[in-house]
Fold this protein.
Amino acid sequence: MRNLLKAELLKLRRCQIFLVGLVALALCPLVQYGSQLILEAEYRNPYYDFSALFENVVWGNSQIFFPISLVMIGGWLIDRESAHDTLKNIMTIPVSMPKMLGAKLVLTGILAVLLGVYSVAVTLITGLAVGLPGLTAGVFFHGSTQIVLAALTTCLVCMPLILIFGQIRGAYLGGSILAFFLGYSMMFFKGGVLSSIYPFSAALILVGFDMSAYAGTTTASNPLLAAVGVGVMVLWTILLLMSSGKKKEMKPRRQTAAGGKAKRAVSRKGK
C-alpha cells in the first residue's frame, strides 16, 4: 500500500484538477464574507466576526466545495488509468483492482485533510485581511478543527460516488455535479431524523456542527443516526471495492463491442 501511495502522489503533478479544488476552496471564505457586504443593511449580521466566518466556511465547504472538489479529484485519479491506457501495465505487476482503488481512496482522504488545512489557512488570512474581530485561541481551534474534520467526513460520504463515476470513462465530472446537488440538498431536510441520517448533513453533525442555524432543522440532531448515515456510505464503499475484484480492466463498452465485431469478422474471413 505504501508503494502504491507513493506512486499516486507522483501522479498528482499532472493533476490540474487539483488546482481547481484549491481555487474553489480559496473562494469559499471570500464568497461567505462577500455575501455579507452585498446584503441590505437590515439583513446584515452586525456582529459578524471570526466565529461566524469559520461557521460559514464549514457550511459552504461541506455543502458545495468539498463534494465537488473531492469527487472530481478522486474520480480523476481512477479515470486517468483508463484514459491514459496505463491500467493494463498496472495489472501486470500484478496489483489487484481493490488494492489499487483502495490506495486512490486513501490518497483522496489524505488530500481531503490537506485541503481542510489549506481552507483553514485561507479563512484565517481572509479574516485578518478584512479586519474581522473575535479571533481567539478557542475560536481558532474550534473553527479549524471543524473545517478539517468536516473535510474528512465529507470525503467518506463521497467515496461511493468517486468509485462509481471514476470507473466510467470521462464521467467523474458528472459525478462532481451530482455531488453538488446531493450536498446542496441537505438544506431541504428540516426534520432532525432526516437531517441526521442524510449522509451529507450527517458528515457535519458528526463534527459537532449546529445544523439549526443553517438548514433550519426543527428538532435536535442525533449523532447516533449521523454515525449510521456515514457508516452506510462507508459500507457501500467497502462493497464496491470487493465487487471490483472481479474486474480485470476498465474499458468502455463501445470499445469492447468493437473488439467483438472485429473478432467475428476475422473468423468469417477464415471460413
